[in-house]
Amino acid sequence: MSLNDFFCPDSVAVIGAAREEGKVGRTIFDNIIGSGYKGKVFPVNPKASDINGHKCFSSILDVKQDISLAVIVIPAKFISKVLEECSEKGIKYAIIISAGFKETGVKGAKREKRLIEKAKDYGIRILGPNCLGIIDAACPINASFSANMPSKGKISFISQSGALLTSVLDWAKTSKIGFSKVVSLGNKADISENDLFEAWKNDPQTDVITAYLEGVTDGKEFIRISSKASKKKPIIVIKSGNTDAGARAVSSHTGTLAGSNKAYEAAFKQAGIIRADTIKELFDYAKAFSYQPLPKGKKVAIITNAGGPGIMATDACENNGIQLSSFSTETIDKLKCFLPEAANLYNPVDVLGDALSDRYKKALEVIIQDNNVDAVVVLLTPQAMTEDLETARAIFDVMDKSEKKITVMTSFMGGDEVKKGISYLTKKRIPNFEIPESAVSTLKVMMDYNDWRVEKSYPVIEFNVDEEKVKSVFDRCRSEGRLELGELEAREILEAYRIPVPKAEVAHDVEEAKKIAAGMGYPVVLKIVSPNILHKTDVGGIKVGIEDEKELEESYDDILFSVKRYMPDANISGILVQEMVKDKKETIIGISDDLQFGPMIMFGLGGIYVEVLKDVSFRIAPISEKIAREMIGEIKTIKLLKGTRGETPSDIESIVDVLLRMSQLVTDFPEIMEMDINPLFVMKRGEGSIAGDARIRIGG
Amino acid sequence: MSLNDFFCPDSVAVIGAAREEGKVGRTIFDNIIGSGYKGKVFPVNPKASDINGHKCFSSILDVKQDISLAVIVIPAKFISKVLEECSEKGIKYAIIISAGFKETGVKGAKREKRLIEKAKDYGIRILGPNCLGIIDAACPINASFSANMPSKGKISFISQSGALLTSVLDWAKTSKIGFSKVVSLGNKADISENDLFEAWKNDPQTDVITAYLEGVTDGKEFIRISSKASKKKPIIVIKSGNTDAGARAVSSHTGTLAGSNKAYEAAFKQAGIIRADTIKELFDYAKAFSYQPLPKGKKVAIITNAGGPGIMATDACENNGIQLSSFSTETIDKLKCFLPEAANLYNPVDVLGDALSDRYKKALEVIIQDNNVDAVVVLLTPQAMTEDLETARAIFDVMDKSEKKITVMTSFMGGDEVKKGISYLTKKRIPNFEIPESAVSTLKVMMDYNDWRVEKSYPVIEFNVDEEKVKSVFDRCRSEGRLELGELEAREILEAYRIPVPKAEVAHDVEEAKKIAAGMGYPVVLKIVSPNILHKTDVGGIKVGIEDEKELEESYDDILFSVKRYMPDANISGILVQEMVKDKKETIIGISDDLQFGPMIMFGLGGIYVEVLKDVSFRIAPISEKIAREMIGEIKTIKLLKGTRGETPSDIESIVDVLLRMSQLVTDFPEIMEMDINPLFVMKRGEGSIAGDARIRIGG
Known about the structure:
By secondary structure, chain A is α/β, with parallel strands linked by helices. Helices cover about 40% and strands about 20% of the residues of chain A. In chain A, helix 7 (about 220-230) packs parallel to helix 9 and helix 19 crosses helix 20 (about 550-565). Chains A and B meet through helix 5, helix 11 and helix 15 of A and helix 5, helix 11 and helix 15 of B.
């Protein structure tokens, strides 16, 4: 969807244009006219003959010319009728400013639903309802009721909060930040962030996509669209509302650790979206992306006229894992030529407190020629002789003339005494930051984005599996009215997807158990088998490391005794005798179902690592091999799998395989609500992994 | 030290006052005169008869009246002579503005040292050299060469970077932040942050102490003074320069995990210092502390005219562990009376986009009466009808009239359209923040400080120990030219300080080992004993869990074989047979010596927790019982000691005991450079702890 006619339409009808100043219907009309819009504007209001000197129509049907976009500002209950007229007139896009829909409660939500259904039938795309409208500064058109028309720039912004948008536009005006397209989503009944990301992906007027979102409309689509768009241009999003719904009943490990915020985190990572924590961060990043080239590498040079801020910037680099450039001897020699003796020639370069603009200029000229420099941060404090404006000019001149395009940002620190310099820098598209730390953390975000952009996308692999088998197990469980699958059924599922499970057989008495154990060889594990018992450990239903027949006899009795004591009414089907896996690390792989994004996969080290440290990683299914590797690499305890102190590493490849098979399983069977493989035993490199135990809960 | 005559002296001599405008000696003189200083000012310059119309003296000795403070602006080499005259004149304080000292290299450092020694002899306290001077806005006096005299306020500020100070003063002027006393430390040859903290602790003009420091002069004093001053008023510090010196050779676990940044973190915690990461954070906090009362509790109410920012503030509360107030039904009923139907009556209270100032006013009046509210954050976005200035007035009026003094802060979000409101708020000492998140994180800092302030200080306990024994062991080692103590000597030290060690005895052959083992009972541990081997595990020098005589024989041989293979030249004294401690958790307690703060104690869980997760806590010795408990409670894996899944908790009390004894040991013997008890076995509650192994390195 290009949304071309939506953003810079040939003509606009304002349905509900009002005569009275201050009324929304009047403000929007005035804003369109006042924004310098070059298309035709038709005010529509049956009670008025003209609005502010423009001929008014009593219905859009009276307008002879074609209308590309309708902006609707009439009370909610009349909109349905007007939409019908829009359809008749062949209008493809409508912005519904009016409130009185979902935001007012159940009745309004129903009205909204009916309206959108109707619009779909008519083939009309709707923005809103209950929104502020749109602004396209390049067109130009201000079809919103915000008086602040931003200057023209390359940042496009979506806001799911109208009020926040007014703040941002006011702030942007004061800070002289330009925008391309600005959209207030309102109730997001039809046009959503997905449509806009898709449209802006190829919009030459948009270099950076930014958004304030309180939620996404379609999680899967969001990931699909964003991950493509973010390869073309940065997408920076604030997602607010971190509190998890928490209402869902969760019974698995994965379920307790998951939650909507984890899902958003995972989705943003997979989609290459840059997450900003605050609106300030959002525009710090956006400015830098919009104004400057991406850094080609990760080495940063700092130029300063004061030690303190230089140290601050250095600290920030270290905290962000950014390397300070080591200058070549050539660079050092050149700097030595003109910098005073007391100056620091090494990074950070201190041009000293009495530096005039020329010293900054020469230093910058030399430094950007050094091959070890990918980005420069220029710091300035207003000292007695400091020339803020001249230094700003010098920075721009050097960068403008340079053939080598490297990223430059500044932190001119102070108030009135650096105001002129900052204003010049902003005009010349050199992003200035209040404090050095913000410049550095923005650089870090740009570097990470550069990595993402050049990184290839990998397809999701499809394994050859036995889907029919899984289907039959789920059908059987459902037909028996059971949605929680115990270990034995879970084993069937795993086997169908070729995920290794240990040798195991159910014994119905101790003699049978002995026979099975003798067959598979000691040591073995005994586990209670009962459809009523999901947490076997909690009722004393597991004994591990049974070394011989005698121990087996005792353990068998112990389990039965303990289980009967804790759960006297449990229906016991027998005791599972299972091969004991040796030389292994315990990990956990889980699935939980997210409301927005669907099935989410979790990985972590088992036992206390997951329980106490919550050291786990999440991604949305399906995942590629690359993402599976990322998930494993992301946990803090990864060193334990890689082997500490010369220990043989664990078989990480086999974990990748299980993750991918789990991803396929849950993609094939979205009815899986929760699933844990806990533990997944991981053996030494080359020896594979085995699912020690598993549980599945499916939807009804 | 009160520094009274220093900050608001009766009279000042400017030694080196210059006739030429633009010269530092002239600027300082003009700044003092121009600042409205009411005392006498004597320009001193043998080459001038008058400076800008003021009679000039060729020497301070020519001045008839008393002089309280000398500001020295003459070249470094002449200062020594002038100091002599100051002494003769009975001057007690001098500010040396002049550069040419430590900052220029070895020669300058020597000059500085000589000068300070001389000043000490004369009883003259020195600020600087190489500094900007001081400002006391309450006095008023601007004895600095910064032209920006800040307005009067209650925040005092120390800067170890002169240039940063100029930035801060410029920024403060633009943002209308007032200051009390401002000090540029320069080379900090004499007067340091310690003197100033001590002086400002009781300064009625100072409500909040702030500082930018690149290091501290005397770590122990810093902690002692700060921890007292911070009980009276908040101290907020930026410590820059996080890169660890790293030059010291470290051989212990503790040593590799410690480092100057950890030491500063620990010291700041112990001293109750609030650490700010950026200069922006520093003054966000300072403003709030200076303008508002401390929140009495931790429950926050939010009032907003827009949903989005309300969610942002709520998220920020959750991220900071701050509770949102639950309003009483009375509050809800009262709000219901006047708020529109669509408004949200629950926290965050949404007064809606069309709210005028009166709606804010009434809402605030009701909310602050609720007993569940300890602080209020008022958010405002500039919508069509929003009254920024009137709302600001309303907020001030309500708070001003209210008998209940609770903390209030605002985030008026935007640019020009909220400028007037923000300016009014600032004037009325209601701190406004650009974004809601900053308001909330500042509240969190205030709440934490309130906890610190009311918390009692606990004394350090002194145990009855055998100091003589330790002394003799150290003497013996030193006399043998050894500074690294192995396990056996470390055992002696631990025993002297009554830290439990396992039963153990050295065997010189396998038969002796068998006899010892039989005596103490299996299982046992075998460990190589060699002065050359410090990392026993790395050379195969340890075997644990030896169950019987046969295993002991094998293990004995294995150890000898392995050790000889790895370290053929090691001098082997025997093999230690040690009791095997059962049912225990492994922890680690360590000591490292910090350059600034002296001995630092570390605690963490042993093994992979310390190696892979670096999950440890640090404090500066000596520590109180309360601090020992804090150290233990701070590690992320504390749940493992408290017992997961119904397990019996570990004996945390015994860890407290060992920490305190270690603290005493290292305080009594500062020559301990590094020490590890690794592992410290912790048994079940009530069963104590035992030092499984220990190593000590002492200074020469």
